[in-house]
């Protein structure tokens, strides 16, 4: 067979390829991707997707939603940690994934395409595995970097993709575990012996980098991505180390409102006229009762403080901010409920995503859940949701609706 065709093993000349390298990268991915899968499912559960159609962007999830549960409000940093790990680890695993795919690329061209039915099925499952892995990483990175290029459809794409990927991943792991164990044991035994087996080039080039050097390069790239991403979860100077993290919207500046802004008031078409104290009214509605409150009316109600972070699905979060406002459960009482029910929140915002959200009764009854009027001792800035915004402990940022116009209490 011609050595000039990729279907010939002799076409592949890198002396780095071999079962040891592939097995080692495989073990790292096995651990890392398992964490990505679990934190991903947890992140989805955090939206309380079973609560209301406005939270759920994934119709017909059916059985795949079997594990969903009422998202807790404690500890308050729960979503911040979960999503920070999901996004930071996902970014840091990119070089490992690419190195792993590079290490096995000769097998993609192997002939004959199938030696048996079993072999055909294995190769097919590998195609699904590789395609869905690339799909998950690409959609994840695009969502974080490009600010929802697929509006509304990111959740179903990433969610279904994750399940397809995980099924192929489990099959692949089960099939390959014996090989991996053998290779790693052998690698430990006779480091010096010449490597044999699949993936080893039959006519290798002179090495231009040692295997250890190559692993260092991959590990180093991964570490570089890690340290230039993780800073977006911290305040102060650490945040400026997040060179690769998009800082969506404008520079939040300094002062009480000087923490990251997801969408500015201008970006979503909130006009200063409609948030003025003369114009703005909050409608609080229950089963039998509806009240309209001005900001001055709200200021007359008992106000409480809570130190809570904002943690976005995109993997950035702020440290604790001091919010001050009216307890959601007090507003539920105003609407005629002794026991806090679920809550449907609507913003002044007329277009775009995230202007409506549903909260579960356990979130509404938590004494730290506020309709915030102040942050860090000053009235909310326009970009953080003036005149009033929701803030709930441990909830994903997207449930913390800004520029609130209407609260409807009741079972959802
Ligand atoms: N009305 C409205 N509320 C919103 C959003 C929005 O676009 N519109 N973005 C949400 C998202 S995704 C996040 S992460 C938080 C960010 O709050 P911040 O901009 O004050 O940091 O606001 C949430 N509330
Ligand atoms: Mo967000």
From TrEMBL:
UniProt keywords, alphabetically: Membrane, Transmembrane, Transmembrane helix
InterPro entries attached to this UniProt entry: Mopterin_OxRdtase_euk, OxRdtase_Mopterin-bd_dom, OxRdtase_Mopterin-bd_sf
Segments forming domain Oxidoreductase molybdopterin-binding: 277-409
The keyword Membrane belongs to this UniProt entry's keyword annotation: yes
Pfam families per record: Oxidored_molyb
Keyword Membrane: yes
MF terms in GO: oxidoreductase activity
Region (Disordered): 186-211
Gene3D superfamilies named in the record: Oxidoreductase, molybdopterin-binding domain
Tree of life domain: Bacteria
Protein name, as recorded: Molybdopterin-dependent oxidoreductase
């Amino acid at each position: 067979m011609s050595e000039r065709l990729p279907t010939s093993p002799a076409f592949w000349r890198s002396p780095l390829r071999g079962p040891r390298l592939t097995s080692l990268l495989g073990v790292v991915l096995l651990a890392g991707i398992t964490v990505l899968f679990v934190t991903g499912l947890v992140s989805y559960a955090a939206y309380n997707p079973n609560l209301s159609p406005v939270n759920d962007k994934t119709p017909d999830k059916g059985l795949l939603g079997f594990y969903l549960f009422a998202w807790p409000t404690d500890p308050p940093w729960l979503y911040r940690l979960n999503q920070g790990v999901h996004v930071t680890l996902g970014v840091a695993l990119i070089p490992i994934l690419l190195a792993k795919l590079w290490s096995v690329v000769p097998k993609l061209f192997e002939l004959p395409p199938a030696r048996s039915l079993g072999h055909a099925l294995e190769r097919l499952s590998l195609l699904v595995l590789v395609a869905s892995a690339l799909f998950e990483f690409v959609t994840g990175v695009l969502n974080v970097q490009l600010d929802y290029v697929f509006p509304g459809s990111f959740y179903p794409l990433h969610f279904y993709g994750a399940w397809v990927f995980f099924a192929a991943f489990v099959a692949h792991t089960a099939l390959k575990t014996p090989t991996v164990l053998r290779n790693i044991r052998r690698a430990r035994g006779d480091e010096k012996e010449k490597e044999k087996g699949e993936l080893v080039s039959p006519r290798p080039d002179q090495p231009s980098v040692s295997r250890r050097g190559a692993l260092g390069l991959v590990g180093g790239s991964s570490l570089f991505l890690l340290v230039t991403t993780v800073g977006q979860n911290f305040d102060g100077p650490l945040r400026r180390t997040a060179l690769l993290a998009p800082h969506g919207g404008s520079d939040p500046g300094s002062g009480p409102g000087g923490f990251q802004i997801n969408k500015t008031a201008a970006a979503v078409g909130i006009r200063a006229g409609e948030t003025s104290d003369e114009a703005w009214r909050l409608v609080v509605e229950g089963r039998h009762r509806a009240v309209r409150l001005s900001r001055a009316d709200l200021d007359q109600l008992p106000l409480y403080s809570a130190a809570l972070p904002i943690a976005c699905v995109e993997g950035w979060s702020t440290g604790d901010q001091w919010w001050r406002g009216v307890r959601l459960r007090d507003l539920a009482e105003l609407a005629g409920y002794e026991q806090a029910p679920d809550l449907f929140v609507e913003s002044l915002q007329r277009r775009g995503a995230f202007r409506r959200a549903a909260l579960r009764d356990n979130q509404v009854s938590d004494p730290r859940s506020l309709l915030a009027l102040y942050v860090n001792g000053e009235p909310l800035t326009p970009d953080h949701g003036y005149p009033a915004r929701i803030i709930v402990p441990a909830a994903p940022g997207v449930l913390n609706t800004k520029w609130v116009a209407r609260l409807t209490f009741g079972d959802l």
